[in-house]
Amino acid sequence: MTATGTTRLDGRVALVTGGGSGIGRAVVDRYVAEGARVGVLERDPRRAEALTRDHGDRVTVEVGDVRAPEAHAASVARTLDVHGRLDAYVANAGVYDYSARFEELGEDRIMAGFAELFETNVLGYMLGANAALPALRDSGGSLIFTVSSSGLYAGGGGALYVASKHAVVGLVRQLAHELAPDVRVNGVAPGATLTALGGLAALGTAERRLDADVGGLGRHIPLGFVSEPADHAGLYVLLADPRDSGFMTGAILPSDGGLEVRGAPRRSKGNR
Ligand SMILES: NC(=O)c1ccc[n+]([C@@H]2O[C@H](COP(=O)([O-])OP(=O)(O)OC[C@H]3O[C@@H](n4cnc5c(N)ncnc54)[C@H](O)[C@@H]3O)[C@@H](O)[C@H]2O)c1
Known about the structure:
seven-stranded parallel β-sheet, Rossmann fold, alpha/beta, binds nicotinamide-adenine-dinucleotide
């Protein structure tokens, strides 16, 4: 019996990008607890070491950057070498723009911020999917993308981040269309979550941490609280388990405390 009391992913193998922190780390921990073995691609060596320390040989970690195709090739190869198969690929590593206002960016920072953010949040997902696909075809597995409520709504980030997450929604839909019926492709769209999500070197916000900023957002969320990474992890189990999500592809599962039903905030508009 595993730590969760269930073994929904017994015998399965997953690969998680950005699995060293936040939502990715919660997914790794939960996958292991459900009986899976997990490969991780993570750029922070200290977070990589912590994974190895905490999970031993159930988790293999490749230190690398999701913007580099060779990092994906190496992490997929290592996962297959050590664990023998790949059933679920979770594209998750991402960065944030700290709601940088479009009009204040200017041309140079739009270009530099776009390159850094889109190469991580969008190109990184495409390169990962490309590297993982042959193994997922072999196993009849699935792709799972971390989207965001910013893939569905405006206002949870700046133009760079919101556009990148809308692009991920398009990627989920297009890949689900192209890869059916062989490989399922779905997304999870978390709302505000207490993590170390970092900003952009191009905008001088690389060292910021989201959990220092979002603590007070609970009052804007129907369920009244800001989530922890573990609040989303079960959805990644669901999407990795074909017994429970075998008829799902192209779906984006919101996990945002009810943003869809929050209603409009009350505002006065002139004399109306
Ligand atoms: N925190 C939130 O409120 C929130 C909400 C919705 C969606 N998300 C999304 O969740 C995903 C995970 O973010 P998080 O909030 O858990 O943040 P996090 O910073 O805690 O975790 C992200 C991990 O990805 C790694 N990473 C970042 N850039 C990388 C790169 N280029 N190559 C390899 N690894 C890299 C980081 O080192 C970190 O360990 C992101 O896609 C983010 O956009 C976060």
